[in-house]
Amino acid sequence: MVMIHKVLVANRGEIAIRIFHTLREMGIRSVAVYTEVDGRSLHVRTADESSRVENYLDTREILRAAAETGADAIHPGYGFLSENAAFAEACEQAKLTFIGPRPQTIRRMGDKLESKRVMKDAGVPVVPTWDAEPPANAYPVLVKAVGGGGGKGMRLVEHPRDLNEAKAAASREAAKAFNDDRVFVEKYISNPRHIEFQVFGDTLGSVIHVFERECSIQRRHQKIIEETPSPAVSPDLRAKMGEAAVAAARAVGYVGAGTVEFILSPDGQFYFLEMNTRLQVEHPVTEMTTGLDLVREQVLVANGQPLSIKQTDVRQSGHSLECRIYAEVPEENFRPDTGSIAVYRPPTGPGIRLDSGVEQDSEVGFHYDPMLAKLIVWAPTRDASIERMQRALSEFVLLGVRNNIEFLHRVVSHADFKAGKIDTHFLEHHAELRKPTTTEIPVEALLAASLTSSDSRGHRGTNGADQTFDDVWQSGAWRNA
Ligand code: ADP
Asked: Mutate which of 220, 226, 263 to test ligand 1's pocket (most atoms within 8 Å of Cβ)?
């Protein structure tokens, strides 16, 4: 049996830190890698050791760092090299344990057409798909890139006359982004919900699912709020979808943590969308409601050990909600922002978990994804979970970089969100949520107040002339009404 003693995490930010925490609990040493601009980042100081690389995507550099530090395994996190079959192979060749599925599984599932063929054969419902021309009554349709990801290379086509042009444009975009210009056509499902299942397989042949996550709140096809259980999934539907997810994982002999993504149509039909062969950003909501540590399970499986739990023992209790905290400006079409975090006071208290990649004085640059942290809550019911998230978001002080905290607060406070009436178009249909309410104090005003000294107290504050940041904070006046 392989025995993992030291793991290099080929990633940065909150996910690297999240993985270091579990490694420390398991008594496994950790190695961080960092690029020049990340030299002072929090993840570097959280690991036991660190090694500088030119680029997080450079396989040779990562393998060199592993050799130099004596790591015997590599955890890729999400993004970067996590779904790169060639990287997983290179790890194997270098006698390093890749903490993830087999290279051939990554390769097959990374091809949207191949993965659909496999799922169809396994009896999993897939969205109707055409290589060439769909019938006229199939419209509207989506043109998608075979190698796609992150919503890139996707185009909605309402009318047959626009198909060829859309395919050509998607193909050009795909060639640039994925080095693969193949595209295909898929039926467009109106007003769907995004429901995914966490699956897990071990090398001894056990495959389980650990329930669903609903990720319908998206901007630009990217998730920003996730929850489990989904308010749209009945026990009966959960059983059916869970069975399909396990069948999907079994069909490819899945080993490790994976996610089977479905779209759920308003008529209750669900369809396989794709399989992500890695740990998901939103995995904490599953951990909060099941008590499992998914990174620990990943390490066990990579070590050749059985999963710690059987399907019949997996239980879910209560409800969990996650909000992704981004350095971005929702009012300006979610453009990313950069700067130095002048004040960082995350919420604490019952039922709160923060997976953060930053701290006070961290620099937020333009080199990497602007996600700063994930705020996760747990409560016995969905209603209580939403109340807790509202409380947590309103206590979260993050100054110096513009961010989406107030926007998230408006979203979780919306009557339709509270009622569970959501689909993947929620944010487009509620564009008003992007505008601040008049009672909100601009971040710049708070920042000015927080930075003023006694001789120039708070003259830029909108809440009265003589207020320091602490006055404003204590009064609670900056919160959403
Ligand atoms: P990517 O791999 O680029 O992320 P996905 O296939 O996972 O693309 O789809 C991303 C999102 O796009 C989904 O969560 C959903 O909101 C939307 N979407 C994808 N396929 C369809 C479809 N056939 N009908 C309606 N919406 C879709």
From this structure: 263
d(CA 227, CA 213): 5
As a whole number, mean pLDDT of residues 285-312 equals 98
Whose alpha carbon is nearest atom 17 of ligand 1? 221
Q: Average pLDDT, stretch 204-231?
A: 96
158 and 226 together in one domain: no
* One domain, residues 174 and 70: no
Residue 458 has what pLDDT?
35
Q: Which residues 6+ apart lie within 8 Å of 360 measured at CB? A: 341, 342, 343, 344
Active centre residues (catalytic): 278
Q: What is the pLDDT of residue 440?
A: 62
Q: Give the three-state DSSP class for 335.
A: strand
Q: How does residue 479 score in pLDDT terms, banded at 50, 70 and 90?
A: very low
For ligand 1, the distance from its centroid to the CA atom of residue 203, given in whole angstroms, is 31
Provide the pLDDT for residue 437. Answer: 73
Pair 238, 366 in one domain: yes
Return mean pLDDT, the chain. 92
Ligand 1 within 6 A of CB of 140: no
422 with 195: CB under 8 angstroms?
no
CA 128 to ligand 1 center in whole angstroms: 13
Shortest-distance Cα residue to atom 19 of ligand 1: 273
The CATH number assigned to the domain holding 137 equals 3.30.1490.20
CB 148 less than 6 A from any atom of ligand 1: yes
Cβ proximity of 196 and 241 under 8 Å: no
User: Residue 221 C-alpha to ligand 1 middle, in angstroms?
Assistant: 7
Q: Is 194 in the pocket of ligand 1 (CB under 6 A)?
A: yes
Question: Ligand 1 mean position to 316 CA, how many Å?
Answer: 27
Residues 47-52: contacts with CB within 8 Å, 24+ apart? 47/9, 47/16, 47/20, 51/8
pTM: 0.91
Which of the pair, 151 or 165, is modelled with greater confidence?
165
Taking the CA atoms of residue 377, residue 282, residue 98 and residue 79 in that order, the dihedral angle to the nearest 10 degrees is -130
Q: Which domain holds residue 343?
A: 193-434
Cβ(275) – ligand 1 distance below 6 Å: no
Q: Which of 167, 187, 207 is the last residue of a domain?
A: 187
187 CA: nearest ligand 1 atom: 23
| Residue 244 and residue 351 in one domain | yes
Dump pLDDT digits (tens) for 323-357. Answer: 999 999 999 999 999 999 999 999 999 999 999 99
Contacts (Cβ under 8 Å, ≥6 apart) of 198:
209, 210, 211, 212, 213, 257, 258, 259, 280, 283, 286, 294
Contact, 219 vs 424, CB < 8 A?
no
Ligand 1 centroid–CA 346 distance in Å is 32
Q: Are residues 295 and 374 in the same domain?
A: yes
Residues 202, 270 share a domain? yes
